[in-house]
Design brief:
The complex is a heterodimer of chains A (202) and B (791). Chain A is built from six helices and six strands. Chain A is an alpha+beta fold. In chain A, strands 3-2-6-4-5 form a five-stranded mixed beta sheet, with helices on one face. Chain A folds into two domains: 44-121, Ubiquitin-like (UB roll), CATH 3.10.20; 122-202, DNA polymerase, domain 1 (Orthogonal Bundle), CATH 1.10.150.120. Chain A has helices spanning 27-39, 67-74, 131-138, 148-161, 167-173, 185-201, and strands at 5-8, 46-52, 55-61, 93-96, 99-102, 115-117. Chain B has 791 residues and is α+β, with helices and mostly antiparallel strands. Chain B is 28% helix and 23% strand. Chain B has a seven-stranded mixed beta sheet with strand order 3-5-1-12-9-10-11, with helices on both faces. In chain B, strands 7-15-14-13-8 form a five-stranded mixed beta sheet, sandwiched between helices. In chain B, a hairpin with a 2-residue loop joins strand 22 and strand 23. Classes of the chains: A alpha+beta (202), B alpha+beta (791).
Chain lengths: 202, 791
Amino acid sequence: MASSRSTHTPASAGGTTLPSRSGRSTGGEAGDAARAAAQAPVMACSHLSLNVNGMPVSTEIEPRLLLVQLLRERLHLTGTHVGCDTGQCGACTVHMNGRAVKSCTLLALQAQGAEVTTIEGIAPAGGGLHPMQAAFHEHHGLQCGFCTPGMVMNAIDLVRTQPNLTEADVRSGLDGNLCRCTGYHNIVKAVLAGAGAMKGQS
Amino acid sequence: MTNAIGQSIPRKEDFRFLTGTGQYTDDVQQPNQLHAYFLRSPHAHARIRAIDVAAAKTSAGVAAVFTGADLDGKVNGLPCGWLITDMNGQPMKEPPHPPLASGKVRYVGDAVAVVIAETLDNAKDAAEAIAVDYEMLPAVVDPAKARCPGVETIHDEAPDNTCYVWSIGDRQAVDAAFAQAAHVARLDLVNNRLIPNAIEPRAALASYNRGEASYTLYVTSQNPHVERLLMSAFVLGLPEHKLRVISPDVGGGFGSKIFLYPEETVLTWASRQVERPIKWTAERSEAFLADAHGRDHVTRAELALDRDGKFLAMRVHTTAALGAYLSTFASSVPTILYATLLSGQYTTPQIYCEVTAVFTNTAPVDAYRGAGRPEATYVVERLVETAARELKIAPAELRRRNFITRFPHQTPVALCYDTGNYEATLAEAMRIADVAGFEDRRRHALARGRLRGLGYSAYIEACGLAPSNVAGSLGARAGLFEAGEVRVHPTGKVTVFTGSHSHGQGHETTFAQVVAEKFGIDTADVEIVHGDTDRIAFGMGTYGSRSIAVGGTAIVRAADKVIAKAKRIAAHLLEAADADIEFADGKFTIAGTDRSVAFAQVALSAYVPHNYPLETLEPGLDETAFYDPTNFTFPAGTHICEIEIDPATGETRIVRFTAVDDFGKVINPMIVEGQVHGGLAQGIGQALLEGCAYDAETGQLLTGSLMDYALPRSDDLPSFDVALKETPCTHNPLGVKGCGEAGAIGAPAAVMNAITDALWTLGIRDLPMPATPQTVWRAIRSAPQGRTART
């Protein structure tokens, strides 16, 4: 096989990628692109107001900021995790206006005016655990803990939206949340138990 | 609590994970921290003609850009921790593994440059401005073809892309046994390459303190002390005591976080150059590209049997891919951890195995849950099941005829099993799985147009690799002991420092149960500390299901030292002779009397030594033990999988999965069963869903995201029937063996034996993993008797 050439070429300032060129790029090309990049206007900030775990938040953000970045990096609510970059793993699941959403697939600006609840905000005030958190503890529904906040948040939404959950409902309802530790066996048990406990509470 | 061992106590660590207050590496923020982004090779194999970073360096927010050239002469290559000696007595080929590519890139994802900037977006924007001129070279992708004449050379040090050809066993004796055999079963097997995919991606945060000339590295590691030793002594040339490695909460490892990786190495070095903390967190795409992968074997396996179905000999030839560079323990996985397990649970008197380890233009391959042992179990158990079907002997019966029943048992492949009871786990699994009713279920399924199959896997694993001197003679470049420190505080509360690391295994509970039982105190009064080289004396970390057998024993030994010293203190307090003091239920008692002193009171005396034998005994109550085991432990068990195939779609559904495991003494059954569940999910994933694919020509990773690589989801799996048998290990005080990998070791063969059982009458002897609907459907369509199955 004859060897061929390829060049990793710099992107233009506007964020559009230049078409890939064969052959060697010159320093001049790279330099031009970089100068353009350096001169690119700083992304304008937008104002965002929302409630997170019942507390009002008002801040200026870059429009490209994701909701999960706002929670983790700005508000230091690091219980919400990032496990992938394609919306597949569900570790970032939070509640927005009462429904489970994947906070890595939302821009923070899409939560304008919303009520957002994270894993830090579901336990009763004054300590203790939410019945779903307690069920995960009692049924060993977690190991490394990384997927756990997303699992718990999705499970609570599942119980609220499907009143009479079966094992099959839980398995299909959690299929947007990946766990690599538990084989889901004890998560399913925990969610069914948590569903019972939530019912008993309401 | 005096009976803590054996109780399913809910985990102490759960609260922080359930409330979002755990602290994973990416959760740690340091003032003034910078962010790193690694520019990775888009090509599997190419010469780097030039890299132009001038534009990136002036990009907004950029603090520094480094390439391989900047590291040359300052940062050494990443070392391999196990030297394999080949069949001719020559050392394996060890080409350099530079943390940033130097001269050539050798896999898609090979790091070429790092950009360090104020924000991650700044770093990514700047990386777009780096110009790399690549001269593309042909890629070597298929391990089976890596040594063919004319194939491109990946490393100059290994012109034929061969790291080593290694063997174990008596080839002549095996050949002679095959010549005498009444029957030979043969299979050509591929053990599919897997991508570990812990849900927490790898991450690192490195900082340099100029005032103290010291470094601190937060990193997602299963073994922070090993990471520190390798990085300081071998790669960066730093004083070991000036590097603190902290592995805080770690979100799963499965082997992939054992290794010293390029990213944390570069960050640690660069943190001194920029004198600011630097953070890097992998994106999932990077995890797919650049985490060490697992498995990737191509094997021809043969089993010779006599007229009665007794195994005479086994002959195995395996080609194992190591990927583009030798990862930290890569060389030991397809040799020491694989071929030595080929005896399985059987008396097979002669075994020969030859392993050819090759470099390919793919991500490095290293230990992934089970590491060599799943590959061995797959070979043994697929062969045994195939032989049973060919000889028309019931698979369970053929196994029984060949089970090892006397212990200790010396296998022909180096290991000496101390104990086991294979008949017990087989019988219990058959009972729970209702094997007796299977043929009825098969008939009913057929009436519904479904093909039903049942498959066994009677696995063995070797845990707690040891002893260090034997491992050393086999090429290990590290010790394999574990350290534990038990610190009793003045109030009688206890902190335990362990060199093991928990990243989901529940050590904070299990180890607390062990110590609580030892001292007769409550588990709530025992805190387990792990994952910090500044707090813990030393440690070899967690892998190979070694934590309870090696780490747990170190803690027991330290606790025994505490009790021995406490008895002397108690003797003084009770004005009795040392030899007359007994310790039970948290009390030191003069034997035969009711005169006693409580554990906490002795602890207080040790720290307030007013009434204390200071002339003969030091104050304080804090003991450390280093424990180096005398042998492996040998957990074993039987897994039985029952499946149904829809011949119209090729879809396989697991209708029942039974696992009966013998892990010796069990400390916390709930946690142990959880480990089994997780292992089974990964083993079933390998059999039905997961398969890493590279383009055969270009070496591009085709399964580079969770949309292309099928991780098991909740609706892919059944609930499992799990039971435990306890045959205590004979050579550690707890009688424990280890449980972390069993599920992943046993499950693939059980699933594939079930699928091939369902398809056997169609003339299908074997299928490759993963047995996706497409694979099964195609096999049925092209099988000799497949037409009859099409409904």
